Structure formats: C-alpha cells, structure tokens
Amino acid sequence: MKAFTAYLIWILSFFAPAYQALTAPFEAEALRAPAGEYAYPIQDPYFATITAAVLKNDEKDKAVGYVDASVKMIPARDDVPYYGAGQNKVKVRYWSAGVEPRPLVVMIAGLGGHAGNAYYNYLAYHFVKRGFHVLSVPNPFHFSFALSASTTGYPGVTRADAADLYALILKSIDKLQRKGGLSYTQVGLLGVSLGGLEAAYLSELDSREQKLNFKRTLLINPPVDPLFGIRALDTLASQKSLVSEDRQKEIQRQVIQFGLSTLILGKTDSPGYFANIETSLATTVPERQYLIGSSLQEFLSALLFTTQQTEDLGIFKTDQTTADPEPRLKEAASFSFADYVEKFLLGSLSKKAGHPVAYEEILKDSSMSGVEAYLRSDPKVQLMHNADDFIVNAEQLRYLQDIFGPRMTLYPRGGHLGNIWFPENREAILNVFSPLK
User: Fold this and answer.
1) Which of 381, 308, 291, 334 is closest to 154 using CA atoms?
2) Exposed/middle/buried for 50, CB within 10 Å: 0-12, 13-18, 19+?
3) Which of 66, 79, 177, 303 is 20 to 30 Å from 393 at the Cα level?
4) Comparing C-alpha atoms, which of 115, 112, 40 is closest to residue 70?
C-alpha cells in the first residue's frame, strides 16, 4: 500500500484539484477558446489531468541529461529534530544545452511538487533540444522547501513564498555557475498550477529587484484564489467513503498498469498518445476524485510533519524529538488542508503577530489580485489556461481575461495541466520563450 501511495504521489503531487468541478458544471462556452480546430483527444478534465504526470521522453538521446544540486539556504535549521544537517538542503535540477552561453528557463512546480516531476523532465528535454538551459526548483509546499528554504517554515502566503523562491533561484544559479558550468544570456520564468501564481509574484518581485531580469514569464493553469484548492483537496479526500475497499484495490491496479504502459508504448509527439486513458482507467468521477484526494493527503502529512519539526506549535500530541517518525507522521495524516491553513499557518502567523490573524488578512498577499496592477502593465507576462480546468470557475477566467487580454490563451479542454504534452500546447510553450534566443 505504501509503495502504491508513493507511486500516486509521484503521479499526482504536482497539481491542486479544484472545488468547482465538484460542485457545479463548468460553462466552457462562457469564454472564447482559441479559434480553429483543437484536436486534443480527451474530453474528461480528470482523465486529462492525470496524463501530464506520466510523461516520458520518447527519444533516447543521452546527451540531454541533468544534474541534481543541493542548496543550503538556512544553516540554522541544521539541528531540526529528525532531519539534521545532512537533510537541510533543497534539491534543484539543472539541464544543460552545452558549455556555451544559452538562455535559461527557470521552472516552478505546482502544489507540493519536487524538482524532478515528470512534466519537468518532458519540457526540459524539448527546451534543451531548442538550445535552452533549464533549472527546476521545488514548490514551496514541498516538505524539503518548507524545511530548508521557507523563512517562516509555513508556506502559504504567496508573496513570502515568492521571496523565498527568489533567494533559492539566485543561490542555485550562483552555485551552478561556480561548480556546474552554467553560462547564460537571458532568463525566462515558467510556473505551473500554484507555481504559476507564485511565478506571477516572483516576476513582480524581480521587476523591482532586477537581479534576474526575466525577459519572458509564462503562467500555466494558475489558480486565482488558493482557497479554491484548499477546499477542493479536503472535498476530494472525502470521496474515499463512496468507494469500497475492493474497488479501491481495483482502481489502484488499473493506475499502476496504465502508468507502466505509458513508459513503454507510444510516442508523446502523437496527438492520440493518451487517447485510450478512459478505457484503461475505467472509473467514475467520484472514484477519480478519491484517487486524487487520497494521494495528496499523503503529501500534506509530510508537510505538516516538517513544519512541526521546524516550529512546534503544540498542536501535535506526539513527541517532536522521538527517533521514530511514524507516530508523528500518523498524527499528521489526521489533519485536513483546511486544518493546515486555520490551525498551523494562521496559528504561526498569529503567534508571531501577538494577535489572531484571519485568512482574509493574508489573501491580499496570496491571490492573483495581489499583483493585478503589475500583471496588467507588464507585457512580458503571458498566461495559458483551459476552459475546463477545475481549479478556476468562469468568473475567475473572465477576471484573468480582463487582466491579460491578448496575452492570455484559453484552450477549450485539457483539465489541469492535462494538455501540457499535446504537440500544439508544447510548441506554444516553447514559442513564448523564443525571443530569448
């Protein structure tokens, strides 16, 4: 069971499922999608979302390799119980297009994602083949970032998380220049899902600091309000009660079989690469919601465990200094995403402020509206979204369309990041950064 859970986390940890799809059908016709025929073959947004996580590089070109670098950001946390100095580092991944100076694309993962997510490897391959260096960094909600790079120890305030990301990116680039042979010309920024929202704040920060001078920023499927994702995760996790234990085992078997088959069959350059997903994973909507929600619950446990090792708020009943992490991890699994925000994030902020802090007070520094003025005025920032993405509703998509105007591309389907591999989308992503060359 643990092996299966780990496999699902690898598949699904990069995205935050959404509340809207659980409560009301999305009105895709409310907004204009790109003109002409869009041949993306998958109609169901949940099925579409899963495809992005099992991407691989069809080509066997060994020249496109990568190196993982460990970066220490906060030495004072070397003595955090259980982790210790050896684990107080953030892992980033670097793909080189050669020894000569090239444009560099920095990629930020979605909720809880690490530096080696499947779609990172997929996109990096194609960027490198086009002559770009690529640097990927984990999302602030990944437990290693919370431990080793989050100055507060509690990710969730986007403006603060973006500042921590900025520091990590700068230090990573410096290390790769000194020890990894990195030589770059111009820098672009790409963020997906929650990483897209964080990239918006990061781009605004760099416009003032001008340490990287991003020439292009691309936001792919970002949320407008993170609260949507928070509500969604708990709702999805609750779907487990609708699925029998026998059916859970059968779904698990199907997922593993499908994941393995995509590693050996087909070509992702083919528009129909994942066309058989609906028959390979014969599931109902609640079953797919259970599959997603229960997997992400494990990621939350790792995050909560880490935050309480860094700053124990006294909420856990188990001992922080125990040599065996299992009791504390088990207790962490009993909390919801709403609990994380209300009890842990706001609890830490209230402790530091000396008075109760409400979610509404941090929303202005956590949602898209916090950088709206910047996004309206900077022509280098572009947005790609899907009309059936379930982390946004029609009103929020109209809001984004009002901000970005012609700099927003809206596809009629693809779920959440589910068309990132589709040839038309992949080429559009690569073309956004072509002016850097």
Assistant:
1) 308
2) buried
3) 303
4) 115
DSSP string across 201-213: HHHHHHHHH-SS-
What pLDDT digit, counting tens, does each position of 36-88 carry? 689 898 888 888 887 776 666 554 444 578 999 999 999 999 988 888 767 89
Q: Is 71 helix (H, G, I), strand (E, B) or coil?
A: strand
CA distance 197 to 194: 5
> How much is the CA Rg of the chain, to the nearest whole Å?
21
Q: Which residues contact 92 (CB under 8 A, 6 or more apart)?
A: 68, 69, 71, 115, 135, 136, 137, 138, 168, 172
Cα 216 from Cα 239, distance rounded (Å)? 40
Give how far the C-alpha of residue 126 lies from the chain's centroid of Cα atoms, to the nearest Å.
19
The amino acid occupying position 104 is L
**CA 246 to CA 418: how far, in whole Å?**
28
Contact 413, 419 (CB under 8 A): yes
- Nearest alpha carbon to residue 390 among 231, 214, 195, 156: 231
Query: What stretch of H or E contains 135?
Result: strand 133-137
Overall domain count for the chain: 1
Q: Please give the single-letter amino acid code of residue 33.
A: A
Q: What is the pLDDT of residues 302-313, one digit of tens each?
A: 999 999 999 999
CB atoms within 10 A of CB 23: 12
Cβ atoms of 174 and 145 closer than 8 Å: no
Which of 168, 229, 165, 166 is closest to 193 using CA atoms?
Answer: 229
By residue range, what is the domain housing residue 33? 2-436
CA-CA distance, 41 to 414, in Å (whole number)?
9
Residue 134's domain is classified under what CATH number?
3.40.50.1820
Q: State how far the Cα of 310 lies from the Cα of 80, in Å rounded to an integer.
A: 6
The pTM (predicted TM-score) of the whole model is 0.88
Please give the DSSP secondary-structure letter assigned to residue 344. Answer: I
408: helix, strand or coil? strand
Ramachandran angles phi, psi of 191, nearest 5°? -130, 140
Cβ(237)–Cβ(296) below 8 Å: yes
The pair of structure tokens assigned to 431 is: 């073309």
Tokens of 32: 């204009």
Report whether 280 contacts 330 (CB < 8 A): no
